[in-house]
Every structure is written in structure tokens, then in C-alpha cells.
Amino acid sequence: MKGKILACRCEDVTLHELEDAIARGHDDIESLKRYTGFGTGWCQGKSCLALCARVLAAKGGDASLPFTPRPPYHPVSLAHLAALVADDDEENEDSARDARDARDEHDGEDAPT
Amino acid sequence: MTLDGASIVADGDASLASALVAAGQLELARSPKFHRPRGPSCMRGGCDGCLVRLDGMPNVMSCMTRAKPGAKLERQNVVLSAKLDVLRAADWFFPDGMNHHEMFAGVPGVQDIMQSLARRVAGLGELPEHAVAAHTAIDDLTADVLIVGAGLAGLVAACVLGRLGLGVIVLDEGMRPGGSLLSFPEHAKVALGVDGAIVDIDELRANLVSEAASAGATFVAETTLLGVLEGGDWLGNGHDRGLVRVKARARILAVGAHDGVPAIVANDLPGVLSARAAGRLLREGVLIGDAPLVVGDGLHAEAFAAAAAGHGAKVQRASLASLQGARGLSRVRGAVLTEGSGTRKVSCDAVVVDAPCAPSFELAVEAGARVTHGEPGFSVVVDVDGRFGGAPSGDVGSRNSPLFALGEVTGAALDHAAFARAASRLGRAVAALVEAR
Ligand code: FES
């Protein structure tokens, strides 16, 4: 049957492209991903990685390790993530205040009377 | 609601995606390079098929968002019109695919034109209409034990650990607890009794949820784990609420598995979907086709085929090995099967595939787990207590590792009896760990 078989639907990588890349020597998951771009789209490999690893293994490549999973594992808006920065700032302020307090105490001890 | 200005009527507490499919709107988006039509394929937040623009916000996963009155939905990435996207021409021009390493690269002038075109058409959606206020606070949760995933494995673990007197929080991305149990049609009869007996899936789910709750487990819904923070706390995202940070002495990953995707022609065509997705749609009141071809013989395929036939659908069955591809220009009109030494065309309006699921190993690996590769995908390696990694060396089952995995994420098949046995061993190990601290 003719027609495209999608290896990675988010990035429109076809099975043909995948096999071509393996034939060019990209025969481990990480290099195969870097060359074809599979697994780099919206789903980050949730729907394509297993299929691509299966194809690679069948072609004699090294599918023992997945590509490195990187957070976030689900799309998240920058507006939500901004809370992390606010939280960090708060912590930094706390430690800056601690440092200031420590310095003040120290200064207090050494202050000429 | 409206989709591109046309009115859509939804009822109940369906997801946006099921409301759209119910209204006959299966082609929701276009793919980035070939502008092939895309539709929902997983109904569980794991593909690119259901993205829409909602009230001016791009890239909303409509399968994980509740339908709400007055919602203004728009298709994304469509050039000219949804029915006739001019960039689909790319699909015909490049029958095998595009190798962007070689295409027009290094040709002076042409390269620049191609790049500016690519910039215009690539990407998903357009920027939001309005600026969104930044969140400033993180919700902090603390428990003895965090369980990620409220599917069969997570629920079984919550019951066991709750009964041991531990404080349990169960985080789940769904609108209600159940995970892939909710991917069975309503009241499906499935061999998932703890003794292997055939049970009503909704009675099973309700019993487990109420047992866990009365053992003291707290459910946090619509919250997805994002990753591990410096210091070891886990970070989640409450879909409407914002970030959630969980401190727990022991953590159990019961995140299940991603849909298996078959390498068949036009596996991305709207109307080709997993048996779990078809089951979930049916649970939300939407039969994906009047004449669906159900492929494979797993629990979900069997349950969907039975329920669809019960709803009057003309169900056809085929084996996974015989499926060569789907046919149709913008949605499924048929399929091609191997028969003897030749092929056979069948006409159908949906291809419902039950292929072995691929364990969702991602978070476990970030937290230090080892995985092995097998036919369905990468599974998290656990010791006899269900422990994984956690030690700097990544040793499996390092005695004091507070990290555990249970269920399909370890490569196990959906099996209540096996999950219950594993959970009781895991429970003893977790209780010992929490007491020791
Ligand atoms: S992500 Fe919604 S259908 Fe797959």
C-alpha cells in the first residue's frame, strides 16, 4: 500500500526518513533523533519514541537507551512557570535578609563604643 | 460554543474534544510540514491531534479541557481554509518526506526565501490575544506518600498505603480519578477483578476510589507532574490552578503507559485512534464511527468493540498484523488489510487500534531509574519491592531509595491481581521507610 507512514506525527517525520537516516549511520536513538527531529515536537516523544525505537532495533541499531527525557513532561504556560521565579526571589530575599542580619549583628559587636 | 464561528452544541461534562467530535468536527488541526489533517488520537494528552485555540489562547489540549458554555474555539495552523489547506501541496510534493538537511540548504537566495517561508508556516498557533498575568505563588503539598497517577495501579497502591495508616496524596491529570480505567466504555465488562473475574469497570473504579478515600487518601485532580526540582521535590501543574510542589517521604510512580502507535500507512489520519481513545469518547457519549474497524485483541479493543456493537455500530475486526493502512483524504473512509498473499480493502469510518502500550518512563528516568527496551517500549526496572534508582549510582533497588514504580510503567500488563500483589510488597517497603525516618 502506498502512502506516508508517520514515525513522528508532531514533526511530520516519515518512516522512510527514519530508515534513510539509519542507513546513513544514525543508528542510535539520540543521533537518530537529532538528525530527523523525531520526538522534538508537541508530545516530546510520547507517541513516537516507542515506534522509532522498534524500527531502529529491527534495523540492527542500538535502541537500548531512550533519548534523555527533559522536563516539563507536559506543556505548561510561562505564566504558570513564573511562580517558580517569584518563589526563588522570595528565597533569595530571605537569604539576603539573613545575611544582612548576620552582618548587622557582626557590625554591632565590632562597633566602636 | 463556537468553532471558527459555527455553533457547536455540547452537553454534560464532556471534554472539548469529545464535544467537537460529537459535532462531526474531527479534523481539528494541520501538521507542521505537510499540513496533513490532524484529529484527536489519544484523548489523554499524549499527541498533537486535539490542539485548538480557545478564547484567544493558543495550543489548548481540547481532550483535557472541559467544554464550557460560550467557549470560542478556533482551528490553528490552517492556511486558507480547514477543508482546503493550500500548503497540503507539500504533502503531495514530498511523497517520502522532507530531509531538511539537504533541501534548499546552501543555495544562495533560495535558502533565505525558504527560511522566511518556513518561519511563517512553522510553529503551533499564534500568540495569545491578551497578556496573561504571571502566577506568583506555588501550592505546597506535603504527605507521607505521593502517588502519581490515579489509574488501576495508583488506586490499588492508595488503598494499600492508606490502610497502613500512611498519609497519601494521589495526583492525577484527569478530570476525575480512574486513569485508563476511564478509557473503557461505561459499564464495560472487563476481566479486571482482583481474582481475574469479569467485573463492571465502573463498579471496580468506584469501589477502589471510595476505598482509597475512606483509607484517608487525598485526590488532587487535573494536575500533571512536570518534573523533579532541585532538592528532590516534585513539581506538578494544576491545569487551572498553577504550580504544585509536593514534599513526600516516598514517591510512587503509577503513571501508566502511552498509546501504542502502529507503523501503518496514514496512521495520522483523523479517525485513526487508539482503542483507549475510542473507549473514552464513547464514555463521553460519542461513538467515533457507525462502521468502525477495531484492530487488535487487547482488553480495550474487546471492550470497545462490544460497546460499539451495543450502540448499533457495524463493527468489523482485524488483527494488528494484518493492518496495512488507513484510506481517506482528510478522514478515514476505509482500510487495507493483508489477506493471504494479497490485500483486501474494507470500508469503514474509523480505525480503532489496540497496540501494546509504551510505558511512560520519562519522570522515572529523570529521577534516576534504569529502563530496558522491549517490543512495546522502555520500561522502568524495579526490584522486588517496586523500588527504582534514586541512588547516585542509579542502582536499582538501593535499600533506602524512596522512589517506587507500580503498574504499566514497569512494563506490566493491566492486571488487577498482579498490581495488588506488587502493591502489598511495595506497601510494606514504604511503611518501613516512612517509619525509619
Ligand atoms: S492529546 Fe488530546 S487527543 Fe491526543
Produce the secondary structure layout.
The complex is a heterodimer of chains A (113) and B (437).
Chain A: E1 6-8, E2 13-14, H1 15-23, H2 29-36, H3 49-58, H4 78-110
Antiparallel strand pairs in A: 1-2
Chain B: E1 2-3, E2 6-7, H1 16-22, E3 29-30, E4 37-38, E5 51-54, E6 57-61, E7 72-74, H2 89-93, H3 110-121, E8 139-148, H4 152-163, E9 168-171, E10 189-190, E11 199-200, H5 201-214, E12 218-220, E13 223-228, E14 234-238, E15 242-253, E16 257-258, E17 272-274, H6 275-283, E18 292-295, H7 299-310, E19 316-318, E20 323-327, E21 334-339, E22 342-347, E23 350-353, E24 358-359, H8 362-366, E25 371-374, E26 377-380, E27 403-405, H9 416-436
Parallel strand pairs in B: 1-7, 8-9, 8-15, 9-12, 15-27, 17-23, 18-19, 18-23
Antiparallel strand pairs in B: 1-2, 3-4, 5-6, 5-7, 10-11, 13-14, 14-15, 16-24, 20-21, 21-22, 25-26
The complex binds FE2/S2 (inorganic) cluster.
Please tell me about this protein's structure:
The complex is a heterodimer of chains A (113) and B (437). Chain A has 113 residues and is mostly helical. Chain A folds into two domains: 6-58, BFD-like [2Fe-2S]-binding domain (Arc Repressor Mutant, subunit A, Orthogonal Bundle), CATH 1.10.10; 78-107, no CATH class. In chain A, 53% of the residues lie in helices and 4% in strands. Chain A has helices at residues 15-23, 29-36, 49-58, 78-110, and strands at 6-8, 13-14. A two-stranded antiparallel sheet of chain A has the order 1-2. In chain A, a hairpin with a 4-residue loop joins strand 1 (6-8) and strand 2. Chain A is elongated. Chain B is of the alpha/beta class. Chain B has helices spanning 16-22, 89-93, 110-121, 152-163, 201-214, 275-283, 299-310, 362-366, 416-436, and strands at residues 2-3, 6-7, 29-30, 37-38, 51-54, 57-61, 72-74, 139-148, 168-171, 189-190, 199-200, 218-220, 223-228, 234-238, 242-253, 257-258, 272-274, 292-295, 316-318, 323-327, 334-339, 342-347, 350-353, 358-359, 371-374, 377-380, 403-405. In chain B, the strands form eight sheets. In chain B, strands 8, 9, 12, 13, 14, 15 and 27 form a seven-stranded mixed β-sheet that branches. In chain B, strands 2-1-7-5-6 form a five-stranded mixed β-sheet, with no helix packed on it. A four-stranded parallel β-sheet of chain B has the order 17-23-18-19. Chain B is globular, with a radius of gyration of 23 Å. The termini of chain B are far apart. The structure holds FE2/S2 (inorganic) cluster (FES). FE2/S2 (inorganic) cluster binds at residues 17, 40-43, 45-47, 49-50, 61, 63 of chain B. FE2/S2 (inorganic) cluster binds next to loops of chain B.
